[in-house]
Structure formats: structure tokens, C-alpha cells
Amino acid sequence: MDILKWIQNWYFENCNGDWEHMYGVKIDTIDNPGWTVKIDLVETCLENEHFEIIKGERDEEDWYYCEVRDGMFYGAGGVGNLEEILNYFRQWASSIERN
């Protein structure tokens, strides 16, 4: 499944009439240029799950960093790394949801 469709489904599956009023998924740009991704995990099956920090830098424009802290998945990366960041979240979330 394409990553955009997958993240839409993940968001929808966590909407319960209350969660979406306080939590959600935020994708924004940064000025170096690049992306940030913030995904609330509070009141989801991922809330208390361990996430190993993922980071890599291939060059100044091709980099990524992902972590979970304070009930949120944080991802950041270069201008061409948005899909990669979302895929790291999907891989982690899918591995937890299967267990």
C-alpha cells in the first residue's frame, strides 16, 4: 500500500470521536530545506512501545532522524526524505500492531 494511503488509514483507525480533537498527524517544512513529521501516539496501541532512534546522513541534503518521546513520534529529514520518514513510522507501527 502506498505510504500516503497507509498514513491516512492509520489516522482514521485512531479517530474515535475524541482522539482526533486533541491528537493527530502533522507534516511541516523546515528551512534547511526539509521536513518534520509529528505523530501523536497517546491513546493509540503505540503509546508505550519502545522505538529505537533511527538516523542517517548520506549528505547535507539527504538525511533523516526519527525518535519517539513524550508520547509522540518525531521525524525530520532532508527535502527528499519525507517518504522515507513516513516509511520508518509505518515499519515500526506495523511491527507492533502484528504482535
UniProtKB/TrEMBL annotation:
This is Rhodanese-related sulfurtransferase. It comes from the Bacteria. It holds the Pfam family Imm53. It comes from Paenibacillus radicis (ex Gao et al. 2016). InterPro entries: Imm53.
